[in-house]
From TrEMBL:
Gene name as annotated: Pcdhgb2
Location in the cell: Cell membrane
Organism for this UniProt entry: Bombycilla garrulus (Bohemian waxwing)
Membrane topology: Single-pass type I membrane protein
Name of protein: PCDGE protein
Residues in Cadherin domain copies: 10-95, 96-200, 209-311, 312-349
Gene Ontology annotations of biological process type: homophilic cell adhesion via plasma membrane adhesion molecules
Length: 349
């Protein structure tokens, strides 16, 4: 305010008092008229700025300057004064939100749109052009997300992993052509997908197992782990391929571990079944579709001396002449033992 802008001097072809000029300006709260007298006595009209301009509120003014001579009757002339207010970078960019939030599945393809930020600048030209960038963020985040400097689109730049990091918080910057800035916060929640199969680990295995082991003997203890969360990480276990066994399952969802003791639930007889049992432990999670993990267990049942020898006959009757020579074979008896190895070897007495 107070700045002066010279205006054109009017000319009058008359002489004397008929050529003496006075000036008038359309009433305006922003501008007034002042007269500056030159050394030759001529008066120079000047436009005086009375208050600060704001191009964003009013970008132009239309005024009328009137010159009146001193004749009787007076004669006048007018000229239109158009004032264009040019832009100054007096407005910073402003984000439409202070915090932007988004939820993204962890299995989205690289290059997927996460969210779009928007900032406006009331200035024009280069002063009003906004460019977007990340604030002070770690290099690891720049490997996962990128931003288009002109559109404000935030897209994935790398593979996301809920199990590695489930939430990201960072700042974005909007900068105009004159260097003024604004900032916003971005919060991105990664949603878990069922991308991890259950993992089965054999913690202990009692092998071989004697056939006379008591019912309820723990044969193996397994650990089942699923790195997903929620239903995707809830594990149910199933045992296949081993008759006469059952699995008791204990699930600890906080640490996502499933401890599975495998027990014999009926007597096992090595004489009537295979020496080796092969079974497959399968764990399935609650995802849709479900993912499964398997572990193969081989249990060998060893013989116990649980069978007595049995004669082929309960009683043998032999008729022997009294003059039979010493050392003669009178009768041959036979016996069988269902056990094997040393347990099945028979001695007679």
């Amino acid at each position: 305010p107070g700045a002066r802008f010279p205006l054109e001097i009017a000319r009058d072809a008359d002489a004397g008092s008929n050529s003496v000029l006075t000036y008038e300006l359309t009433s305006s709260p922003s501008f007034t008229l002042a007269m500056k007298e030159s050394p030759g006595g001529k008066k120079q009209p000047e436009l005086v700025l009375e208050r600060a301009l704001d191009r964003e509120k009013q970008s132009s003014f239309e005024l009328v300057l009137t010159a009146v001579d001193g004749g009787d009757p007076a004669r006048s002339g007018t000229v239109q004064v158009r004032i264009n207010v040019t832009d100054a970078n007096d407005n910073p960019p402003v984000f439409s939100k202070s915090v932007y939030e988004a939820r993204v599945p962890e299995n989205v393809p690289v290059g997927s749109l996460v969210l779009q930020v928007r900032a406006t600048d009331a200035d024009t030209g280069p002063n009003g052009r906004v460019f977007y960038s990340f604030g002070n963020v770690p290099e690891s985040l720049l490997m996962l997300f990128g931003i288009d400097s002109e559109s404000g689109e935030v897209r994935t730049a790398g593979a996301l992993d809920y199990e590695g990091e489930s939430k990201y918080n960072f700042r974005l910057e909007a900068r105009d052509g004159g260097g003024l800035t604004d900032h916003c916060e971005v919060q991105i929640d990664i949603m878990d997908e069922n991308d991890n199969a259950p993992e089965i680990t054999i913690l202990s295995l009692s092998n071989p197992v004697p056939e006379d082991a008591p019912v309820g003997t723990v044969v193996a203890v397994l650990k089942v782990r699923d790195r997903d969360s929620g239903e995707n990480g809830q594990v149910s276990c199933e045992l296949k391929g081993l008759l006469g066994s059952s699995a008791q399952v204990y699930i600890y969802p906080l640490i996502k571990l499933c401890f599975v003791p495998i027990r014999f639930r009926k007597e096992t007889c090595i004489e009537s079944s295979s020496l080796n049992y092969k079974c497959k432990k399968r764990a399935s999670d609650g995802g849709d579709p479900a993912r499964t993990g398997t572990a193969r267990i081989r249990v060998t049942v060893v013989d116990a001396n649980d069978n007595a020898p049995v004669f082929s006959q309960a009683e043998y009757t032999v008729r022997v002449p009294e003059d039979v020579p010493v050392g003669s074979t009178l009768v041959t008896v036979t016996a069988m033992d269902a056990d094997e190895g040393l347990n099945g070897e028979i001695k007679f007495s």
